[in-house]
Design a protein that fits this description.
With 397 residues, this protein is an alpha+beta fold. It has helices at 24-51, 59-64, 82-95, 97-117, 120-131, 150-153, 245-280, 292-321, 326-350, 363-374, 379-391; strands spanning 137-140, 157-161, 164-174, 182-189, 195-201, 207-211, 224-234, 282-283, 286-287.
């Protein structure tokens, strides 16, 4: 599956050797993750994608590899950097974007919500079991009529009734929700109009999750429409440190850079497949890799990947240093996903007509790129976040 340089074990697509900046424990962890993904996930990824199913058997091994909550001190297996966590997202995206998205929801969104906005008691109650893969989480922010404007446009309501809260509303595109044990639901408090977070177990009366069918991207991700009618949640399951949308935004900021890394992984997966194909496909009496126009496509793809890795590495390093802002993660996500989209198109072009079938290795990445391009903030909205930072003028409304 992977194309590795023989002396360093680095991916060929890591053309400038950025991965060498990781510590020895971090490189060893990435090596174990790569070995597992190529041995146990790569051979089954196309089949599950085609059937629109999620490979539940990967949940426990990924927990053993430390993929749930690696940035949360309470549950991480070893001290690590945001750059390491970005490389893990790249490796996951390079093999299966649906599995990468599952981890992004479980770890980046659901667990980080509890880590950022939950009380210490809530963190101790939920995070260890989620890190072990014993409990599956989901993150309920997007709604049928509210996506990019979630800060102002949430329609799901929360009403205090004694020691409980009553939630009413709908959510859409909620990954993992068809088999999750708990969903972090963000809702607007009718009393003060502020957004608050709630840990809603999926067996709560009035809660239903229905799988969204007929997707053309991330088919392995079990996205759902959620309906809540009079769902009662005890005060003990309200995230105690979430009193406004600022908490939600902090979770998204922490996750957005890793989504950018995941986009680079998708580009790498497509590039690896295109390069292997170009070396083997014979036309006009020689491998198409020997043709100038094919080399041009491959070099442009590698250039996009290299530039994106450089940008993501610095964005994650800034996060490690505590100086990364919304605008830095937004620029990484907007740039990396745009370059990913361009790259998977060129890699499909290298394979010609064969590029639209799964068994040649590019088609799944080509399709999945469309979802990654839009989630965790569209390119347009992330661009406006950066634009606000550099001009001092908000252009959202």
């Amino acid at each position: 599956m992977s194309t590795l340089t023989p002396t360093t074990g680095l991916l060929e697509s890591d053309f400038y050797g950025f991965q060498q900046q990781l510590t020895e424990p971090e490189r060893a962890s990435i090596g174990r993750l790569r070995e597992y993904l190529e041995r146990d996930v790569a051979p089954i990824a196309d089949g599950y994608w085609a059937r629109a199913e999620f490979p539940m058997q990967v949940i426990a091994p990924l927990a053993e590899l430390g993929m749930y909550g690696p940035g949360i001190p309470l549950v991480r297996q070893f001290e690590n950097s945001a750059v390491y966590r970005g490389w893990a997202a790249l490796e996951l995206g390079r093999v299966d974007a649906s599995v990468a998205t599952f981890i992004g929801v479980q770890s980046g969104l659901a667990m980080n919500s509890i880590a950022v906005a939950g009380s210490e008691e809530q963190q101790r109650e939920w995070l260890p079991r989620m890190a072990a893969g014993e409990l599956i989480g989901a993150f309920g922010l997007t709604e049928p009529l509210s996506g990019s404007d979630s800060a102002r446009g949430l329609r799901t309501t929360a009403r205090r009734d004694g020691d409980t809260w009553v939630l009413d509303g709908e959510k859409r595109w909620i990954g993992n929700a068809t088999f999750a044990d708990v969903v972090v639901i963000w809702a607007k408090d009718v009393a003060d109009e502020q957004v608050k977070g709630f840990l809603v177990t999926t067996d709560t009366p009035g809660f239903t999750a229905t799988k969204i069918e007929d997707k053309i991207a991330l088919r392995g991700v079990q996205n759902a429409d959620i309906v809540m009618q009079g769902v009662r949640v005890p005060e003990s399951r309200r995230l105690q440190r979430a009193d406004s949308f600022r908490s939600t935004a902090e979770v998204l900021r922490l996750t957005r850079t890793e989504v950018a890394w995941q986009a680079v992984g998708i580009a790498v997966g497509a590039y690896d497949a295109a390069l292997a194909y170009a070396r083997e496909r014979i036309q006009f009496g020689k491998p198409i890799a020997a043709h100038q126009l094919v080399q041009d496509l491959l070099v442009k793809s590698l250039s996009n990947i290299t530039a994106s890795i450089a940008l993501c590495t610095q964005a994650s390093a800034m996060q490690d240093a505590g100086v990364g802002g919304d605008e830095h993660s937004a620029l990484a996500k907007a740039f990396a996903t745009a370059k990913m989209r361009e790259t998977v198109g060129w890699c499909r072009e290298v394979q010609g007509g064969n590029g639209i079938v799964l068994d040649k290795g590019v088609a799944r990445f080509f399709a999945d790129a469309e979802a990654i391009y839009s989630y965790e903030g569209t390119r347009e909205v992330n661009t406006l976040i950066v634009g606000r930072a550099i001009t001092g003028q908000a252009a959202f409304v």
